[in-house]
Structure formats: structure tokens, C-alpha cells
Amino acid sequence: MDRQYEYREFESLVAAVEAILEKEWQNAEEFEKQGKLEKEKKAIMGFSEEIEFYKKKIHKILKKSADWKSVIVPPWYKSAEDGIFAEIYGFSGLTPWIYDEKEEYMNSSSAKLIGDRMYCLIDGKSVLQPQRISKERRNQLKRALLLATPQERLEKGFHEIYLINGIRITIFSGERTKEDQDVMVFRKYVLKELTFEKMALMGTIPSDAVELFKTMVRLGFNVLFSGQVRAGKTAFMQTWQRYEDPSLEGMAIATDPETPWHRMMPEAPIMQVVADGEDLEIVSKSMLRGDNDYILIEEMRDAYAFRLALDITSMGTRRSKATIHAGDPLDIPYKMASAIVSKFGGDFRSVVAQIFRNFNFVFEFYQVPGNRAVKRLKSISEYRYDPEKDSVSIHTICMYDESEKKWMWKRDIGEDKKKMGSLQPEEFKRMNEMLGMLEKRSPIAENTVIYPRYYGVKRGDEKFDR
Fold first, then answer.
1. What is the pLDDT of residues 190-246, one digit of tens each?
2. Long-range contacts for 186-191 (Cβ within 8 Å, ≥24 apart)?
3. Mind listing the domains of the chain with CATH numbers?
């Protein structure tokens, strides 16, 4: 049977319920309409109380007539009430993915609408779904989302919106897309249990390094997490942070409200600031006076974020964590220093040296080819600056061997890290011993030290071949 014909009666039922709700809206007093509008906004943004309110209202409408019981409800909806809510106030066929209502959607980290077609990432592959979402419904959805986020202007062709459950929605439309091929991209975190043990079970990190990572958190190193989009770096930073001392005061700086630290660590005094680009420069002085034990920076991607990270860590701040879109650890200092010098001026070598002094370790992640659902730790590198020789170096202490399908190790700890460890001698001794044990089991045979050529760059020569 043609799918459109099969669900035509359901579409008619949706229209009938919507007409009743619209009549109720039209008959309401003006002051009541404002309250109803707020309820609708909250329902689409994912507030459970408002969602339940409208589902109960829909249920009452359906109870008044038994005719609807013969209507075939699309199989992606759990019930007629759920389906009607999704079509009027929710995300239409996307709703089951948004709220993990089907098993295959629970572990799906992204969904896309391209025109009327819906794709979900399932088992590492984009799979076309049976749902189709009409142009009219997509436009209604866009308008509703923008009403709920008034800072986003309707005429813009690009929008980023966040639901209350942390799902990020990116919308491309208008002149930015081909006719009838507007795009909506939905991203969500599927790692519900933020523990190193869970990540080890998923194959993201080595199981025999779980205790090592917990020890490194307690020692308070400044750490960078790098990798491509959807490589798992943010999830790993969140997990790393979950082991942080909850009595310490932190500041989370994000370019968007992606991580709800107040829900993930409600017992920890973490101040959350949302700022990007020039806004970071405006509030940076206040941040520097924030008297925080550590900072968290999500998605460092421009000169403003890079400079703020350096300014804060230059004050001696430890336990700081940041994510960055970058290639291997060799690229990061070059990328950061080039952006900072280009925007604010200064000596390139000095900025590079500062990066190597301020950040201790880099954890690099990637998506496993052929199965994008699997994320993996690719390497751990130590940044090292030698003040006597005025030299910088990158020391690989862990790397994943694709041919052997296992992690290889090297115990190599710099003098500055040893000095930091002297403040907690028992913890540092434990870290040293665990690295030695891991190296003995699976040693790295190749050279593990890189002396970046770009450190010889003088100001104005930032395009020097690395």
C-alpha cells in the first residue's frame, strides 16, 4: 500500500485535533494567549511538564470520539496521542529520535533532515528512515524553534538552537540551500554513563589505563582534548571532569550551551559562561578575576578563545581542560599561536613556548573508519618546554597501533611534571608505576619525541613549514 495513502487518515485526525486546539486558542482572552504561547514554546523545547500537559489535552479530545481507534498510526509513534503531539507541537517524525523512543535511536548520536528525507546514524552509518516530513511541516518546525529562541532571526539562513535535553540543532535554509533541500542537523550525546570504565567497555580507551587516568585527574594537569567532529573529545572531557574534586571552584566557558554542568555535577560550584569571538574579549578581564581553581573551555576555535586559555593558565591555574578541533598534537600549538599573533600581534616563538609551558598533556581522538559510532583514543602526548635550552618538544606516551589493534606505551615524564607531582608524591608515584607497567606490557618501539621545526619561526614568518 502507498505509504501516503496508508497514513492519510492519521493526517486527517491530526488536522481535526489541531482545528479544535486552534478554536480554543482563538476563543481565549488576550492575556491567556500569552500563557498558552509560553506553554507551546516550552513543549517544543522539551520541558516535560508542558509535553505532558498537551498529551493529556489531546487524549481528552480523542476520548470524545471512538472513530479514531480504527486509524492506522505510523509505526514510529508509540500511540495516537504521541503522534498527534509530535505533529502539532513536537518534531514530527523526528520525535522518536529526539526522545529515544526506539532502541536503534537510543545509541544514535545524530539525525539529519535533508529536504523531506530523514537520516539517522545507526551502527556508524547514515540510514534513511521511513518518515517523511513535508516542507510545510519543516517550515512550521523552524518557526516554532525560532519563536522559542527569539535571539535567532527568522530571515537568517543559518541557526544553532539547543533543546533542554542538550540536543543541538543546526538549520540551513533559504539562500544557503537548494530549493526544497533545506537541512536540519540534530546532535545528541549517547553516552549516558560518564565513567572511564564505560568508555573502556565501548573500546574508546584502554581498560588497563582507567586507574591511570583517574590518577592524572587527581594530580591536576592542564589537558587538551583534540580530534575531528564527532570524535568523542567532548564526551571524554566531560568524563574526565566528572572525576574532578567537586569542592573546587570552576568556570566553564562555552561558545554554546552544549554541556549542562549544573545537571552533570550539581554538587560542584561551576560557573557557566556562554560567549564567543569578541564577546570573550569583553568578559575576559572578569574571568581572569574570577578566583577559580580551574577552567573548562569547550570548542576552542578562534584567537579569542586561544588567548583567553593562555592568559588564564599563565596565572598558574591548574586542572584546566579544553577541547579543540585540530589534527595531531604537533598541529595544535602552531594553530593556536598563528591565530593569536595574527589577531593580536606578539612574538610567535614566545606564544608557542607559552602553549608548551601551560598545557601538559594532549589526548587525541578519532572516529574508527567504517563505523563512525565507535570513537577511539589515538594518542596521548606530553608538551614540554626546557627553559635552559629554550626548546619545545612533544613526547608521545601512548599511541594506538592499528595493525596490532592495541595501545602502545612509553614512560616518559618531564621535569616540570615531576615538579607538579612532588605536591602529591603518592599519586605521582602511582602514575609513574602505572606508566612503567603499561610500557612493559606494550612498549612503543619507534621514536616518541618530536622537536617542532616551527619553533624557529620569527615574528612575521608564521607560514614557516612545520
1. 656 789 999 999 899 999 999 999 999 999 999 999 998 878 898 899 999 999 999
2. 186/94, 186/97, 186/98, 186/110, 186/111, 186/112, 187/109, 187/110, 188/98, 188/109, 188/110, 189/109, 189/234, 189/235, 190/106, 190/107, 190/108, 190/109, 191/235, 191/239
3. 1-90 (no CATH), 102-190 (3.30.450.90), 196-456 (3.40.50.300)
